[in-house]
Amino acid sequence: MPKDSGIGASSKRREDVRFLTGKGKYTDDMNVEGQAHCYILRSDVAHGTLDSVDTSAAADMPGVRGILTGEDFVEVGGLPCGWQVTDRFGEPMQEPKHPVIAHGKVRHVGDPIAVVVADTLAEARDAAEAIDVSITELSAVVDMAAALADGATKVHDDLTNNLCYDWGFVEENKDAVDEAIKGAHHVTTLELVNNRLVANPMEPRVAIGDYDASTNDHTLYTTSQNPHVIRLLMGAFVLGIPEHKLRVVAPDVGGGFGSKIYHYAEEAIVTVASKQFGCPVKWTSSRSEAFMSDAQGRDHVTKIELAMDENGKFLALRTDTMANMGAYLSTFSTCVPTWLHGTLMAGNYTTPLIYCNVKAVFTNTVPVDAYRGAGRPEATFQLERVIDMAAREMGIDPIELRMRNFVQPDQFPYQTPVAVVYDTGNYQGTMAKLLEVVDRDGFAARKAASAANGKLRGFGVASYIEACGIAPSSLVGALGARAGLYESATVRVNATGSISVMTGSHSHGQGHETTFAQVVSDMLGIEENAVEIVHGDTAKIPFGMGTYGSRSLAVGGSAMVKATEKIIKKATKIAAHLMEAAEVDVEFKDGQFSVAGTDKSVAWGEVCLAAYVPHNYPLEEIEPGLEESAFYDPANFTYPAGAYACEVEVDPDTGKVEICSFAAADDFGNVINPMIVEGQVHGGLAQGLGQALLENTVYDENGQLLTGSFMDYAMPRADDLPSFEVDHSSLTPCTHNPLGVKGCGEAGAIGSPPALVNAVIDALADKGVVHIDMPLSPSRVWAAMNQAG
Amino acid sequence: MAQVSMTVNGKAVSGEVEGRTLLVQFLRDQLRLTGTHVGCDTGQCGACVVHVDGEAVKACNMFAGEADGAEVTTIEGMANADGSLGTIQQAFQDHHGLQCGFCTPGMVMSAAALLKDNPNPSEAEIREYLEGNICRCTGYHNIVKAIQAASDAQ
Amino acid sequence: MYDFELVKPSSVADAAAALGDEDAQALSGGQTLIPTMKQRLAMPSKLVSLAGIEEMQGVAVSAVGGIRIGAATTHATVAKEVAGSYPALAALADGIGDPAVRNRGTIGGSLANNDPSACYPCGTLASGATINTNKRAIAADDFFVGLFETALEEGEIITSVDFPTPSAANYQKFDQPASRFALVGVMVAKFDDGVRVAVTGASESGVFRWSEAEAALNGNFSADAVAGLSVSADGLISDMHGSADYRAHLVGVLTMRAVAAC
Question: Is A183 among the domain residues?
Fold first, then answer.
């Protein structure tokens, strides 16, 4: 029986009521009394020297309060990168300064040049047109291979070249891997592109700076997945504002998918502008602006080689990747192609020897950073594609080949050759569950029916594993992270027994207000509605690292559980006092404290009241009040895994791919709210299938962004996608966090691209097509069929 | 500046607007009806869909002056008279047809327009009708389910 | 966008007078014009809304088989009103943009804009329609001059479009995946005096008639008749969504499908 509340129940989301009635409070819905608006004049060339920025005419335009240029930010810090990668020679990466506003040079289309603050946005934009900008255009560095060539134009003149780092992992394995590949029975080699994506949360970014001169307090309202991280980065590294004088508020956030993790220039701009011009300053991004100012995702070019013995047993894996950083290092950009990518190259398999080389490259394009999955989709895509190709070359069924190489259930904990230890999993189990859901035996008949209609039908599978619950601080610290990745929570029991939970995680659509309340109410045996989740405001929450990397429940939820356990412990002491019993004899169940073997009991509410009205209270032993905080730092990553299947029909006349069905069997460990988990999978699948079929970010040779709006960047729409079959019943609970949860936010985006591409290649195999780079647009599929034929 | 008057969610309103003031700006900035959202500037995402004289339109692709004299319904006007969720809104909650909520007002308004014209749409008809409403969170799966459920409930 | 004055005349004559002002521009449904203005790519000082002009609204089906569509009639209205009398045109109108766009966008606006990937120019040209303005009647064959260019003079207003109804017709649209405009669209219309085939989305010069296909279909109205034909890729659009070769190929495929669906 499904539960109707608490852990395991598909509780309806409480946040929905405000969203469904138009009462959500997104940042752009906020207007601070007396606010001015700003418009950011951005570079329309990809690379050039910024010779002069003359704002004198603009300053006299109607409504203008003031103008900022790069000169105004010369003295402050640049936008920081949060992860220092050490290259394979032991040297730190090349790390250029990222000015808040361009100074000296512009390095990508969209690089901010000047900021006009005016009474209205229209006036600010009118005035921006009067700014006289003189740029000497330089040749743009766009292609990664060209960027690494000797004598290439440099994106950053003060760096040696355009190579951010040359990273090898595991460097000590390199020779052994080379040797194994040389002597192998069969080696499958695949070169592929992981296409650049734009996250495109439906809510564009917004920032409002509000400075109070009477107290010297700064408030920043911003569209962020992690307000505390913004406070830390902007306060400490950019503007030098101490935390107690800077409050960062992220109200309802309309999607993020990674793109709202980072500290962006606009946040520093409105904060500075508000103080300088004496008024709150609001910036609202247009979608067109978002395309050239939000960090983008993916953009890897990879060669992968898989060596096997005659039975298809994987012997060694070698990859060679170029990863595009764009023009500057966004907050977590450097860890994505390294520690979030190389460490996952074992996949679900027992490949004993792995070497992964990654060259991170500067180009005159918008910075690239984590986007839903972040490094793990790139790892999974290349691995699951090369395995499918190997299966075809070896004449082994692709599912059978995977089964032969899966880590076996009795091998956990499993130490991979790429540093991480999988605590638990059952890859055979999710594959078996997948095959229950899909009718593989009926495929031949369906293929014949498609053929009768002139269509080519294909079936593809992919397995995936990801490292979530980011992350053990000591481990990531050793790998170059400049932050800890724990989470905090405070559970405040109010005098009448209701509860406020302050969490450093911050929902941008995941439904924390509901799920987190389910956990706490379940632990305390009280109504879900008696628990309120408070998030998104540094003034209300002790600390937090935010929401990304499928970490909220696994890390933030664990902190909340720890704090709630402390509450129970203290409440038990109080209850023992009230019942005049020994603490050890007191049991807590269903919101009731009782003494074993007696009829003595005291209700939750009475204990809470006693804590705040301590007339009869063990004051000599414990303090009044009932509020506890906890920080939780995970012992390991969590490792969600699963198996996905896709069936497609290709129209050979046009190259158009139709997704006929898509099934997902995931192991997320324990599940708190199945409805929300399934929704997360649906959304991830849509983004992964969007990457595979539709989405692409294209720059021309001059660095002009050709896909700068929804007119050219193909977002998945309702009629591009089928309904999905999702299952999460084959599960192995995480062994090292209290809830046994693994995280579910990114899985769909990780496992689905290779499943779709494998299906299309299966459909086209008879035509001699062995690979097509994403997105599998009609024109690409048609061209591949015709070239191969 | 010009004077515009219209009925919004059953209430007569008026205001001074520039020629360039979009209907969505009038709703959000002057009437403070911030449920109608702006998610793009090319008329594609549909976060701004409202009803003008009973028909779904994109409020970011229409000038306020063009709606002078019109009957406008926004997401704020979709709940029942007692404040409880309307049938479509309730179906979206019941079937988890929303995550971040940003596209949701436009989705609900489009769904209402669809069900007015076609009370019993097929899954394919629902998906086709939503061509002008982009959701980045749900993969549309539960939005389709919600609209089917609303169709059954009506 | 830049500011402007919005005027809303109630007659074609008043609209024409208003358009006489310097930098005045007509506003029909605005579904293309407003996004263009947001990008500050157009800066009219005055926008003359045609939506309130009664005489430019609606669909009239004549007893002898022709259809007159008021220029300010929305795509949604056309889709509904001509479903019985000219189903292929109704289907074309029903495939433009999305439902909310179809409730605002108009046939007159689409034709005056003449986007090289738009559907209406294709339907109009394939139908051999006549575009009526406040000054004259222009045959579709003379109306579409080039990319975003028409025979309209400064301040001239399309008031209605007359469509002869074919005995059979079909429009095949292959979507550009992002914008959902036609990557290629082909309309085939069979009249007593011959077949007309128009192609949108493909050519750098905008909508065009595929005379070779028309000739073949006049001899033998079947998909087989056009199976061996192909348009030259020269002068066709080549972009990230499809090469000129691909578009040329699609013209052939869609033409065959349109004929087969007639």
Answer: no
Q: Kindly report the number of other CB atoms within 10 A of residue A185's CB atom.
A: 13
- CB contact under 8 Å between B139 and A288, yes or no, is no
Residues A648 and A622 in one domain: no
Give the distance from residue B58's alpha carbon to the nearest chain C alpha carbon, in angstroms.
6
**Given A17, A202, A675, which is nearest B135 (Cβ)?**
A202
Tokens coding A61 = 């335009």
Tell me, yes or no, whether A673 and A536 share the same domain: no
Mean pLDDT of residues grouped by 10 in chain C (262 residues)? 94 96 93 93 93 96 86 98 97 98 98 97 98 97 96 96 97 97 98 97 97 97 95 96 97 98 96
| Alpha helices, H only, chain B | 23-25, 87-94, 104-117, 123-129, 141-153
Taking the mean position of all CA atoms in its chain, how far away is CA A724?
A: 22
The domain segmentation of chain B, as residue ranges, is 2-75, 87-153
Per the structure, the count of domains in chain A is 3
B44: closest chain C residue by CA: C179
d(CA B52, nearest CA chain A) in Å: 17
C46/A contact by beta carbon, under 8 A? no
A492 within domain boundaries: yes
ipTM, 2 decimals?
0.98
Under a CB-based contact definition with an 8 Å cutoff, are residues C190 and C167 in contact? yes
E strand map for A223-380 = 246-249, 281-284, 300-308, 314-326, 353-362
Q: Which CATH number do you get for residue A623? A: 3.30.365.10
Q: In Å, how far is C34's CA from the nearest CA of chain B?
A: 6
Which residues in chain C have Cβ-Cβ distances shorter than 8 Å to A714?
Answer: 177-178
Once rounded to an integer, what is the mean pLDDT over residues A742-771? 97
pLDDT in tens, C187-222: 999 999 999 999 999 999 999 999 999 999 999 999
Amino acid, res. A51: D
CATH fold of B2-75, please?
A: Ubiquitin-like (UB roll) (3.10.20)
Residues from C contacting B (CB-CB < 8 Å) are 1-6, 8, 27, 30-31, 34-35, 37-39, 47, 49, 51, 76, 97-101, 103-104, 179-180
Kindly report the number of other CB atoms within 10 A of residue A728's CB atom: 23
What's the CATH architecture for B87-153?
Orthogonal Bundle (1.10)
Interface size A-B, in CB pairs within 8 Å, comes to 178
* Shortest alpha-carbon distance between residue B20 and chain C (Å): 5
CATH number of domain containing A77: 3.90.1170.50
**Average pLDDT taken over every residue of chain A:** 96
- pLDDT at residue A271 is higher than 90: yes
Residues of B in contact with C39 (CB under 8 A): 41
Contact B89 A21 (CB under 8 A): yes
Range of the domain at A87: 31-138+202-255+260-293
> How many C-beta atoms surround the C-beta of residue C162 within 10 A?
19
Binary contact (B61, C34; C-beta < 8 A): yes
pLDDT in tens, A113-137: 999 999 999 999 999 999 999 999 9
In a domain, A647, yes or no: yes
Instruction: Mark whether A460 and A588 lie in a shared domain.
Output: no
Contact A28 B127 (CB under 8 A): no
Same domain, A607 and A640: no
**Contact assignment for C241 to A783 by CB distance below 8 Å:** no
- Neighbour-count burial of A725, counting CB atoms closer than 10 A to its CB (0-12 exposed, 13-18 middle, 19+ buried): middle
Domains of chain C (ranges, CATH numbers): 1-48 (3.30.43.10), 168-261 (3.30.390.50)
Contact A131, A40 (CB under 8 A): no
